[in-house]
Specification:
about 260 residues; alpha/beta
């Protein structure tokens, strides 16, 4: 009974702070003088620990989970990523509706276009398929002039341009020369107007002469408008036996 009381008393003294199993409680004097007593003390302490402390050192049941904390603040925006590869080309959309206004590229009556990117072989003188040289335009315009004059049955009321040899020069067949500098020596024919886009925009470098299309009797009128002529213009009506030939110029620069 006394042994048990002593153990209980030791338990109360040691409590949960008793050394765990395997720890060695040593006394300097005992360690030095009596190793046997040291082993006895160690065995006794294990007994005290197993009897008094072990029941109190067991892991208790897990407590309830606490409440979830508040959501933290949003972090800073990250750096922009690299650009991805270009996607594939989409399908071609449907063809739009046909616009109004007629055939914009079709030949205009009594008008022949000349351009730096034209062609004298495949061109027809239309705005979309112009001639390359001024001379080709003059030749085409002259054919209209001569065909009208040769037609005695020509009715002014059925034609958009009055009878050519009686009309002002501005109503005669027109050779419309687009912007650029053209280097050639044109031969001007009767009843043809050569027109540019302004004497600083349309420039012709070369010498001009006339031919015998001015010879038959009639009010032959040819001329220039909105164009720059850099060369000689020789209109020798006597040389071509023209009794009524005339040459006009509007907003034309001679240089």
């Amino acid at each position: 009974m006394k042994y048990i009381q002593m153990i209980v008393h030791l338990c109360l003294l040691l409590g949960s702070t008793s050394p765990i199993n395997g720890d060695t409680y040593t006394n300097t004097q005992e360690t030095t003088n009596n190793t046997k007593n040291e082993h006895s003390l160690t065995a006794f302490r294990k007994l005290i620990h197993n009897t008094c402390c072990k029941p109190h050192c067991q892991k208790g049941p897990r407590g309830n989970q606490g409440h979830r904390g508040k959501k933290g603040a949003t972090g800073p925006t990250g750096n922009t990523g690299t650009m991805g590869a270009t996607g594939a080309t989409g399908n071609t959309g449907p063809t739009g509706a046909t616009g109004t206004g007629g055939e914009a590229c079709g030949p205009l009556e009594n008008v022949f276009f000349v351009a730096m990117n034209g062609n004298d072989i495949t061109g027809d003188g239309s705005v979309c398929n112009p001639f390359l040289t001024i001379q080709q335009g003059i030749n085409a315009a002259s054919l209209i002039s001569l065909s009208v004059l040769a037609d005695d049955s020509f009715d002014d009321s059925l034609y958009s341009v009055p009878k050519i040899y009686r009309a002002p020069v501005t109503t005669r067949p027109v050779v419309w020369v687009m912007a650029g500098t053209y280097t050639e020596n044109p031969i001007l024919k009767a009843n043809v107007l050569v027109r540019g886009l302004g004497f600083n925009n349309t420039r012709v470098v070369g010498n001009w002469t006339i031919d015998n299309t001015f010879t038959p009797a009639g009010d032959w009128r040819s001329g220039f408008a909105d164009i720059g002529l850099f060369g000689n213009v020789t209109a020798d009506f006597l040389a071509v036996n023209s009794p009524e030939g005339k040459l006009y110029a509007w907003n034309t620069r001679f240089g």
